[in-house]
Amino acid sequence: MTVIPFEARRFRSTAAYYTRYRVPYPDELIARVAERAGLQTGERLLDLGCGPGQLGIAFARMTGAKVTGIDPEPEMLETARADADTAGVAVDFIQGSSYDLGPSLAPLKMTVMGRSFHWMDRPATLKALDAISVEDGCVVLFGDRHIASTPDWRAAVNALSETFAPERNADRERRKGPDWIAHETVLLQSPFSHLERIGIVSERQLTADDIIGRAFSTSVTSPETLGDKAEAFEAELRAALARLSPDGRFAETVEISGLIARRG
């Protein structure tokens, strides 16, 4: 099975862009997942690979769960703590990764991951979570699936990513290749093999600044990755976007979903 090598600071320099420009997780989706999973006030929830803590903060705010967030990037954790304070919720954010899962986190009713599972040794992570989750506990993978972009601004971003950051772009392309095993298949072969997806489809209006911010929020074209090429990347992307939409109006249709995995 293809495993992308662990790199603790892969998302360095992205925290300032992540919360603002990534597709948000709707409260409606959080509420539906919590209800379906039977998450109760005070039960323990782990936000694994939490980034700036969007999921953990939302679950703490909406359900009263006792939330811990784990991420290897210090800048992400700093942002997460500030956002939790702003939201008025108590979340324990700690530096670490899926390789640090252990009994101190038990007993977990739910583990959530937002766009982070693909960076892990997935079978090993699920095995570790099986050992520290309660009998009726679950794992929930959150993410967004691109359906359409109008005009096709994603193609412009991807083309420039390949030009400006070919090595990082290769990591992304690896997840589209024949050797990559889908998350669903990995889960079906794990203790968490009973799968159910809850999704919300929406259309979002975007500006050129939104698209550029989204690009800077990714590990492929983060400011850290691009280095002294960041200004040139932004200039070329702005020019490409202006050609696509002279009036600066863009849209995307996305499905934001939670894949609930329970023990079979």
How would you sum up this structure, described in words?
With 264 residues, the protein is α/β, with parallel strands linked by helices. Helices cover 41% and strands 25% of the residues. It contains eleven helices and seven strands. A seven-stranded mixed β-sheet has the order 3-2-1-4-5-7-6, with helices on both faces. α5 links the parallel β4 and β5. α1 crosses α9, α2 packs across α3 and α6 packs across α7. The longest helix is centred in the C-terminal third of the chain and has 15 residues. The two termini are 22 Å apart. The relative contact order is 0.18. The model has no long low-confidence stretch (mean pLDDT 95).
Features:
globular, single chain, seven-stranded mixed beta sheet, 41% helix, alpha/beta, 264 residues
Report strand order across the widest sheet: 3-2-1-4-5-7-6
Q: Please count the beta strands (DSSP E, at least 2 residues each).
A: 7
Reading the helices and strands in chain order gives HHEHEHEEHEHHHEHHHE
- Average of the residue pLDDT scores: 95
**Shape annotation:** globular
Biggest pleated sheet:
7 strands, mixed
Helical content (DSSP H or I, runs of 4+): 40-55%
Q: Low-confidence parts, pLDDT < 50 over ≥5 residues?
A: none
Beta percentage is 25-35%
N-end to C-end Cα span? 22 Å
What structural class results from the helix and strand content? alpha/beta
Cα-atom radius of gyration: 18 Å
> What is the tally of helical segments?
11
